[in-house]
Design goal:
By secondary structure, this protein is α/β, with parallel strands linked by helices. Helix content is 40%, strand content 13%. The strands form two sheets. The chain has a three-stranded parallel beta sheet, with helices on both faces. Strands 1-2 form a two-stranded antiparallel sheet.
């Protein structure tokens, strides 16, 4: 974020009383523990005019939006006896690399889940590795419709997500697999569309709902959901969809119920129903 302040020439907008904080944080080791000095500097900079100008333009650079939560919680985080809460852990972001396998038992049923990276350079590691999985859980951040890829600043994130969804739906390795589609970060999406018009993004200029309409959020969700549903060219494929946020504990229940339904449908098909 501070690099963006520099890149966007907002350093002159930084309040004089925060110059020392700015200098400290641009030089500090990223791995350094957040103590009182660093925490106080972060707290001051988070409300600084120059930093907030860059934050308003965050769609133009790479930043994890959940940092807002940590900045707002900095008084607690910088204490010597700080212990991470469940919310702290849920909002942390770690880029997935390779294939990570996890096994769960839910209501006496065994689940095996493979977590894979969605970035372009990660896909070649896994897209041909799975045959006959029960379902593919596809997570797309609905709030990132005006942002670009980490690895390609010329490509819109939502456009890329829809294209990848189409690629997976069309892939022969997943021809018998159902899709569970999560449109994630609905809370950030709702906050963003209060200030950003979807149609202002070139790729989505056909979005016709007037900015500020009472049903703008709902129409936006419907618009992007249809983008994904239309990307599936297999009319026999069942797509379960859910609009959610990362901290929604009901996500596990959605996956569990969808898998039960998928298995039941499969058994009925095998029995000739």
């Amino acid at each position: 974020l501070l690099q963006a302040v520099l890149d966007m020439d907002y350093e002159g907008n930084v309040a004089p009383e925060n110059k020392s904080h700015f200098d400290l944080m641009t030089k500090v080791d990223e791995s350094k523990e957040i103590d009182t000095d660093i925490g106080s500097a972060l707290k001051a900079l988070w409300v600084d005019p120059g930093v907030l100008l860059a934050w308003k333009r965050r769609a133009e650079f790479q930043i994890v939006e959940s940092v807002k939560y940590y900045f707002n919680e900095i008084d607690r985080i910088m204490k010597d006896d700080y212990i991470a809460t469940q919310q702290d852990m849920l909002l942390a972001r770690v880029r997935t690399s390779g294939i990570v396998t996890e096994k769960y038992v839910i209501d006496t049923k065994n689940f095996e889940m493979y977590d894979v990276g969605g970035q372009r350079n990660e896909r070649k590691k896994w897209i041909h590795c799975f045959d006959d999985v029960t379902a593919v859980i596809f997570v797309a951040a609905i709030s990132e419709f005006d942002q670009v890829l980490f690895e390609d600043s010329s490509t819109n994130r939502m456009v890329e997500a829809v294209e990848l969804f189409n690629e997976i739906c069309s892939n022969r390795h997943f021809q018998n697999s159902s899709m569970i589609l999560f449109l994630n970060k609905k809370d950030l999406f709702e906050e963003k569309v209060e200030n950003v018009h979807i149609a202002d993004t070139e790729a989505f200029k056909d979005f016709s709902t007037p900015f500020g309409a009472d049903d703008y959020y709902d129409k936006g969700v419907e618009y992007f959901l249809n983008k994904f549903l239309l990307a599936n060219t297999n009319s026999d494929r069942q797509i379960y969809n859910h609009v959610t946020c990362a901290t929604d504990s009901r996500n596990v229940e959605v996956v569990f119920n969808a898998c039960k339904d998928i298995i039941l449908r499969g058994n009925m098909d095998s029995a000739g129903f």
